[in-house]
Write a structure and sequence with these properties.
heterotrimer; A mainly alpha (249); B mainly alpha (120); C mainly alpha (558); A: 249 residues; mainly alpha; 71% helix; 0% strand; elongated; B: 120 residues; flat
Chain lengths: 249, 120, 558
Amino acid sequence: MPREHAVHDEHDEHHSLPQLRHHFETEEQQREAGSFGMWLFLLTEIMFFGGMFMAYLLYRNWYYPAFAAASNQLNVPLGAINTAILITSGFFMALGVWAAEVRKKSTLVLMLVLTAVFGLAFLGVKSDEYYEKYEKHHIPGNSFNISEFVNPPINAKTGKPTEEPLMPDMAQKTQVFFFLYFAMTGMHAFHMIIGLFLLVWLIWRAQRGDFTSGYVAPIENFGLYWHFVDIVWLFLFPLLYLINRHPFK
Amino acid sequence: MSHSIHSDVHSEKNDPLNVTNPEHAEHHIVSPVQYIMVYATLLIFTLITVGAAYIDMGAFNPVVALAIATFKMIIVLLFFMHVKYSSRLIKMTISCGFVIFLVLITMTLTDYMSRAWGRW
Amino acid sequence: MSATTIVSLPDQATAQMPKRSYLNNEHGLLSWLLTADHKRIGMLYLLSITFFFFIGGAFAGLIRLELLTPQPDLVASDTYNKFFTMHGIVMIFLFLVPSVPATLGNFLLPIMIGAKDLAFPKINLLSWYLYMAGGIFTLASLVLGGVDTGWTFTTPLSTHYLNTHVLTTATAIFIAGFSSIFTGLNFIVTIHRMRAPGMTWFRMPLFCWSQYAASLLMVLGTPVLAIAIVLLALERLFGIGVFDPAKGGDPLLFQHLFWFYSHPAVYIMILPGMGVISEVISTFTRKRVFGYTAVAFSSVAIALFGFFVWAHHMFIMGVSNYSALVFSLLTMLVAVPSAIKIFNWAFTMQKGSITFETPMLYAFGFIGLFTIGGLTGIFLGSLGMDVHLTETYFVVAHFHFVMVGGMLMAFLAGIHFWWPKLTGRMYPESLSKLAAVVTFIGFNLTFLPQFVVGYLGMPRRYHAYPAEYQVLNVLSTAGATILGVGYMLPILYLGWSLKYGAIAGNNPWQATGLEWQIQSPPLTENFLETPIITHEAYDYEWLEEKMKLEKQEVTHVG
């Protein structure tokens, strides 16, 4: 009984909400448990991507020339634009959390829709890049073509190769790069797709008014997830696209 | 008993260092202005990281790229993800995650680096 | 329950089954399959892991049967490979990892800290469904023809050379891994956020501390296994070369990622068992656990050191000598917190009023067998010795002493100890004592000869061996038969006790833990009123004083 009193004195301003689950004492406790749980989940995500970053680090050091040459086949402007798109999406997500906290329903819905639109745009650009890899035979496997790395195209003006030519066995190692490229960006894109499905559900609930009466936990926690996916990309972009961009002399 | 709990709860409010209950933090709303500043910073540093890649800095190119990425990550963590206003528990949880990630990287690298002294 | 008395000692003889409990709160199969009650989920887990334990045990029986004779006569080599692979996979991922946390942990952790449920009941249910999905995939790979990589999925064997159901099994482990992540996540959040008022960190039962440490490992380690398995599956599906040396990959990278999880995983398996032992020993010696803080922190220390030692599984695989040296030295660190626990349990028993109930017998078994297992681990952690002993039956004996002699003993100790709380009924005491003794004898007969045969050089994972090893192998197989009886007995009499066991009452052990202060079996909501904790978990000295006082009062009045 005394506990009940103490709790109610402290949290009178949080009038009991229907979202309060039976096993929590207070709204506050439920909210903090939820966000702590989300953070622990993100910890597992760090370790999940961590394994791939470990593989990347190892093979980049082992096969640096192949990684540099293969990385130069990626499209930096597209990658940079995509980074900006993703940051924008994250920005709207952050504004969405703010809109939920200040209880503006239409702003919240708008922000979530913008988050989803920019997320979709990111995936669109990404699939365009994937298609380019397919056309250039840069997808690891039987159709993988190393000729471009052994005999790089000749620059018409200088008459020299545009890239440092690789020995055939090193050129084979570009496959390792492209495998890691597809594994890491693919896993990242997979997380975004899951996120987009969740977003659709959140938008539907937000326009019903679920999150603008003081119950912002789902929006906040989804925001954490979405920003985490952004952070992964913030590392993937320089690591995959910008290995060795200064021109070959 | 009831009294002591009562006073504990109240002292938390005036507890800027978050000492009495490290697992609790007041709910803080970050303003849109702050978000816009963070957003602009992130975009600017995306440009910087692209630009830096085209300058030949030798061994420092990946260092600079990673430093910028880490900086961007930190401001996303602090402001977009509200870590700056979170409880000590959350801050410790996140650092714990990065420490274990670094354990994975460094302990594995001890093997690869000492397997081929000098080639790394 | 009032806030002032923390211990209720009702008369057991007049105990009655409570009219309402979590067991009969709702009826029907669906009420179990859709439950969000941590106690019901714990029971679901108990049933399912028992099922998988007997599947894994059947494979163990077949392995021992094959090894009865030196010739490969019972089954073909390929089939034998599938036997030990399925035995390992089922036992590790579907029994040992979820054993104590998912059953007893699920059931007791919220009660022990005075909460109504885990922080995320639905995620808890999800984790059981994921476990079952993982189990179904494992069974599918078994029915389709099995897998023969060994439970370690060693590359490039698993990616390039085998035509068995590696992908199905990999999917199973990937899914089961998420089940364990969600359990761990739930426990950590629950311990941080759901403690009752007054339940400080250092008033928590040591069981909770060990669950907490194991949960940290689950949350931080399992994803690395998940990504290793994903990469393995991609490599197998598309033939790309992350782990294939022919294409520039490094098979050792898989080993690093795999053992980054799988070494901490052995602490996921043993730590919760250590928590059980702390509870049991304290209760049946009527004493506070000696050096409570040291035992609590040693759990966390084991979890922490666990992340720094994984490469000792790889000494002969071609890791650098310098790195092997470092990992060998770091491995020795783990011995320190483990020894702290053993010594503290020993000191707890010193001058205690020890009684020999079944859980205590299992706990004694645990201490003896775990100590042997741990000490032989030091042999294997030493670089030079390991080169000689690794991949022999010495390793097999070592980890069975820790996992089966340690964890399984602890699991059975816990099941017997909390059976009255789980079901409201007592198990038959003499029969269960017999089972504990039979298990201990059978275990030693099975695995002690394996130390010898391994030291003499018999490699693991072969189904034929030179004739001079036969005597020891026959001993081992005979022991396995006895061990099998030891494991069948509890199933039978625990099942029997569900209907015919004596009514247990709230607190049959006169224990001070919070879980013993509520009715058994508990109500769905655990506590009618949030308890307020003013004492730590093991206040037996205080209890003794109190009972003395009560006696004096009685005589005074008389």
